[in-house]
Structure formats: C-alpha cells, structure tokens
Amino acid sequence: MIKSITVDAGKCIHCGKCIRDCIVNCIEFDADRIPRYVEGGENICVGCQHCMAICPKGALSFGGKNPDDSDAAAYGNSDDLLRLMKSRRSVRFFKKQDVPPDKLNKLVDMLAFPPKGGNVDSLHFSIVGTADKMRAIEKLTYDTIRAIDKGSPVIEFCRDNYNKGIDFIYRGAPSMVAVSVDKSKAIAGCENADPIIALSYLELYAQSLGLGTLWTDAALSVANELPEVKAMLEIPDGYDLNYIMLLGVPAVKYSRTVQREPANVKII
Ligand SMILES: Cc1cc2nc3c(=O)[nH]c(=O)nc-3n(C[C@H](O)[C@H](O)[C@H](O)COP(=O)(O)O)c2cc1C
C-alpha cells in the first residue's frame, strides 16, 4: 500500500474534517491550511482512507487514488438489509455446477472491504473455485479417513455419515473459502475476529447474489486434523487456517424466514 496524501488546493475548503477523523492524528494543516502528513506521518498512517472518504469536496487523494473513482457513500435500505439477514440460511444442498465466474469475481472484489483491526491486512483466502477440485478434495479426505483405524470423534462422525451416503464435510458444494491469518501481522486481539468478520460479509453478499453458504466446523476440524487435506488449500507459509465456508448455487429454496426467540440482550 502506498501511503501518501495529496490535496488539490483549488478544491480544499480547509474544513479540517480529514484531520479530525484521522485515527492516528497523522494529518495537520500547513501554513496555508492545506492538509498534509505530520512529520513522519506516512509511518503511522494506517491507510484507512477516512481522510479521502470524508472530504466533502473530493480534494484529498490517498495513495494517488482519484477520489472521483470512489462510489458515492450509500447505506442501502434497512428493511431490505434486515430481510436479507433474516432470509439467509445455512445451505446444505448445492447444484452440481460451478459458481458462475462473474459471481465469484464479485465476491473476490468484495473481500477487500470488510474491516480489519488496525486496518492491517493479515488475511489470506484460499478459494476452491470448481466442483472438480472440490470433488478431488472430497476424495482425498475420505480416502484418508478410510485409511485411519480410529480417528477423533469428528473423523468418526464424518466416516459414519459418509458410509450412510451423507457427506457431512463438503455437502457436495462446488466451492469453498478457507480464510487463514498471519498472526504475526494481525493486531493483537483481532487475529480471530478479522477472519470471521470477512466470512460474515462474504456470507451475506453471497446470498444477495443468489448463492448459498455454510459455515462448516466439520471441514475446519478435518482440515486441521488431516495435513494432506489442508495442503490442498495451498495456505501460504506463516498463515494459520482460521475458518472454512462452503459456497455454491443452492439446490434448496426457502419460502420464508425463520422465527427466532429474542436474543439475550440487556440494555444497560
Ligand atoms: C461457526 C458455525 C459453524 C457451523 N458448523 C456447521 C457444520 O459443521 N455443519 C453444518 O451442517 N452446519 C454448521 N453450521 C450451521 C448451523 O448449524 C446453523 O447456522 C444453525 O443451525 C442455524 O441455521 P441457519 O444458519 O439456517 O439460520 C455452523 C454455523 C456456524 C455459525
């Protein structure tokens, strides 16, 4: 990431919003009340781009980016968003087709936007993009499980289900997303939150694209227990697998939302 700020002095109205909104106070006015980095500002700047996002005149550029290339900020319709959240379901039946590439690309583009502690990008996403590759992982998984005499409770549970014709691990999904984290890069305390936030964003956006997802503890446990399976995820050195989500075109349709009991909340 290139850390720099440049200001179009002709557009700047000297409102100071960029200075006030900076989380690390790395911006100040120069003698002409034009924003600039403080001495050494590029070393403390976290690159969150709040300065560019908040500028009412599009006068400030971060990292050489043109503010006019940003989308206008929008927060959508809250009723639609709530309906999406309530309609999202764990999908356990998938069509035998790959995720359409245009939808996969949209998901990939979106993954740049979930928040990360300190705006530090410590995540890696391994995306299995085709059903053929998924079935190869499935075959290796169950071949390996078959070769184990007696495995952990999860392994035994998955083996029993597979013997009954149920793939509890991959559910016939044509894709999956494995998120891993470089804990040496992540802000302390955020290393477990960042990956889950990213997958939560992915899950909702996927469902808005007509795709289905499944958080899967089973695939995670199996990958963590079977090194040959984890190796197929091509996780870079230094990164720890954090979570796995299945993805695909649903072969099941839900007609209505569920009706949950109220959450356990106390407003203090
Ligand atoms: C962290 C997490 C792990 C999960 N692991 C599995 C799993 O291994 N297998 C599975 O079939 N469902 C799994 N689920 C799905 C839950 O069972 C599901 O969210 C819950 O039953 C509610 O259904 P809904 O997601 O459709 O609202 C998991 C969900 C979460 C949030």
How would you characterize this protein structure?
The protein is an alpha+beta fold. It folds into two domains: 5-68, Alpha-Beta Plaits (2-Layer Sandwich); 78-248, NADH Oxidase, CATH 3.40.109. It has ten helices and eight strands. It has helices spanning 17-20, 41-44, 50-54, 78-87, 101-110, 131-147, 153-163, 193-208, 217-225, 227-231, and strands at 5-7, 27-29, 35-37, 60-62, 123-128, 175-181, 212-215, 240-248. The strands form three sheets. Strands 5-6-8-7 form a four-stranded antiparallel β-sheet, sandwiched between helices. The protein has a two-stranded antiparallel sheet with strand order 1-4. It is elongated and about 75 Å long. Bound molecules: flavin mononucleotide. Residues 89-90, 92, 214-218 line the site of flavin mononucleotide. Flavin mononucleotide is lined by residues 89-90, 92, 214-218.
Short recap of the structure:
The protein has 268 residues and is an alpha+beta fold. It is 34% helix and 14% strand.
